[in-house]
UniProtKB/TrEMBL annotation:
Domain Fe2OG dioxygenase: 186-291
Protein name (record): S-norcoclaurine synthase 1
Keyword Hydrolase assigned: no
Family: Belongs to the iron/ascorbate-dependent oxidoreductase family.
Gene: NCS1
InterPro entries for the chain: DIOX_N, IPNS-like_FE2OG_OXY, IPNS-like_sf, Oxoglu/Fe-dep_dioxygenase_dom
């Protein structure tokens, strides 16, 4: 294992190794191969790469360029786009604290939430996490909204392909999760992320993003070429063993989240991960795919038996997600521009 060279041999800590992750190729026509590869990845680590997903590298580069333009705006301008109670808009540094027991401050990152666009006169806007997005001025960032709306559509299409393979890997029909009451109108959230060029110090509780598992079904992550993401394949192990996930050009890094862990009765586990920074700016784009607001998340029929009863009580997804947001985000309700 590599060792940090600046410290004496006796005291220097081990440098996390690179994780070995399976690669799921969406261009393969043999669904059995895809199901087998994905299922093994879910059982091994809950993280895997997805390649040949259909979103061009040229468009990905355009999305990253637009993301950088947003974060390059003066803070005063970004704060005019501050996150609202629907979780749309800008999130400044330290807005989120993902591991409060072990973090000195909040996460050293800023972000921007974009959800499914729902107009204020749409009955769905009465739901806690439904409504219009907050968009930067077209004068300040021309073409920004159109680019993000297109990316949201295309990423959701990729996610649905992956979810069909996950369903088959759980011995369900490929369209199982597409039922209207489950993921007919999924909560699909795009979040742009920028980690400023600070240096993390886990020993002092300083992280780009604290250790956490994601809240929903799956997450599709696109990253630049700056390393930082670490995973812990066994979150119950003591001590925890962390491994870097290397960026892979043109690929999504996909991870399982907490709702899938509950649905699968711990057959598939959500995976603990964090971001540890080394002094370089880092940009990533997370796409969180989650059930309907009203979906009742309870053990799947293929994941329980007389000898393996459900390990979690049923929960309404909306209530679950709102509580997770409340636990990890700053309350901006009293903020004055």
């Amino acid at each position: 294992m590599e060792i940090a060279s600046a410290i004496s041999e006796a005291t220097r800590p081990a440098v996390p190794a690179a994780a070995s992750l399976n690669i799921v190729d969406l261009s393969i026509s043999d669904i059995r191969t895809s199901v087998s590869t994905l299922k093994q990845a879910c059982l091994d680590s809950g993280f895997f790469y997805v390649i040949n997903h259909g979103i061009s590298q040229g468009f990905m580069d355009e999305v990253f360029a637009h993301s950088k333009r947003l974060f390059d705006l003066p803070l005063e301008e970004k704060m005019r786009l501050l996150r609202n109670d629907k979780h749309r808009g800008y999130t400044p540094m330290f807005d989120q604290t993902l591991d409060p027991d072990n973090q000195l401050n909040g996460d050293y990152k800023e972000g921007y939430y974009i959800g499914v666009e729902v107009s204020e006169d749409d009955p769905r806007s009465l739901k806690p996490l439904c409504g219009p997005n907050i968009w930067p001025s077209e004068v300040i960032l021309p073409g920004w909204r159109q680019t993000m709306e297109r990316y949201h559509r295309e990423a959701l299409g990729v996610a649905k392909e992956i979810i069909r393979i996950i369903a088959r890997s759980l011995d369900l029909s490929g369209d199982f999760f597409e039922k209207p009451e489950m993921m007919g109108e999924p909560v699909a959230i795009l979040r742009l992320l920028h980690y400023e060029g600070s240096v993390s110090d886990p020993g002092k509780g300083i992280y780009g993003a604290g250790a956490h598992s994601d809240f929903g079904f799956i997450t599709l992550l696109a990253t630049d070429d700056t390393e930082g993401l670490q995973i812990c394949k066994n979150k119950d192990a003591q001590p925890q063993v962390w491994e870097y996930v290397a960026p892979l050009k043109g690929a999504f890094i996909v991870n399982l989240a907490d709702v899938l862990e509950r649905w699968s009765n711990l057959i598939f586990r959500s995976t603990l991960h964090r971001v540890v920074l080394g002094g370089q700016d880092r940009y990533s784009i997370a796409f969180f795919v989650e059930p309907n607001h009203d979906c009742l998340v309870e053990c799947l029929p293929s994941c329980k038996s007389d000898t393996n009863p459900p390990k979690f009580p049923p929960v309404k997804f909306e209530e679950y997600l709102l509580q997770r947001y409340k636990d990890t985000h700053v309350d901006w309700s009293t903020y004055k521009d």
